[in-house]
Amino acid sequence: MNSSWNLHIFPSLASTSQTLWDLLNQGAQPGTVVIATQQTAGRGQWGRQWLSPQGGLYLSAAIALPLEAANSYQLTFATAWGIASQLRQAGVSVGIKWPNDLILDGQKLGGILTETKIHQGQITQAIIGVGINWNNPVPPTGINLESWQASTNCLAIASLEMLTAKVLQGIESGIDCLACEGVDMLLSRYLDLLTNIGDQVYVNNTLCTVVGVTSRGNLRLEIAQSDQNELITPEIFVEPGTISLGYHKSPV
């Protein structure tokens, strides 16, 4: 993947991803990035609005990677792992909450939204949208990086510009991992940073334990059942958006 990015920076946009789609329709190439100081109609998962007040990082990056449409979630896993890995290397103890949230001290630091265009079962264009809390106000389940650094005396990320550079490096390293090393290696690295392993959740009133994630993005859940004094633990697979795992502060 080409490491040079073509940046387009705006004081305010309705949506960085929508503006980037418009640029792609006008002939912009992969590697184009749209950044806004704030968004008035930011998009989150499942059609939710992503609140984007001034002070956060809001960017969308166009990437090119030949991939079957059924495997589109691999792009989200790649960029989530890549961004989290870059921030961890800088000293920020970020983890991943399935499927696409960046977690810091058990609270939401940011999120990733992958949008694609499909032709004959293949992804022809893809945009990675990223929102990360820098010094913007956040809800009770959220955390912003500047406040966390102040409370921990950690000065890993000195500025919003540095955070932007780390995010773009993360997108590139994640996509490179998927393209060059394959989904099995990517998934292994993603699972290493997943905060949900061992979490318990109810599905149809049945208690399950999170044991992993599939390459299609589904959560692997183990169900403990007793059958004639013998313990059997079948697995079920849950699609993104079906259940919410919630947030909980880390004891660390």
Short structural summary:
This protein is of the alpha+beta class and 252 residues long. 27% of the residues lie in helices and 33% in strands. It contains five helices and 15 strands.
Structure keywords:
alpha+beta; single chain; 252 residues; 5 helices; BirA Bifunctional Protein, domain 2
Number of strands: 15
Count of alpha/pi helices: 5
Low-confidence region ranges: none
Instruction: Supply Rg.
Output: 18 Å
Described by the principal axes of the CA atoms, the overall outline is globular
What's the story with the biggest beta sheet? 7 strands, mixed
What is the second-level CATH architecture?
Answer: 2-Layer Sandwich
Structural class: alpha+beta
The amount of beta strand, in percent, is 25-35%
Please, what is the CATH homologous superfamily?
A: Bira Bifunctional Protein, Domain 2
Mean pLDDT over the full residue set: 89
H/E series, N to C? EHEEEEHEEEEHHHEEEEEE
Total discrete domains: 1
The CA-CA distance between the termini, in Å, is: 36 Å
Helix content: 25-40%
Would you tell me which CATH topology applies?
BirA Bifunctional Protein, domain 2
Spatial order of the strands forming the largest sheet: 1-2-5-9-8-7-6
Q: What would CATH call the class?
A: Alpha Beta
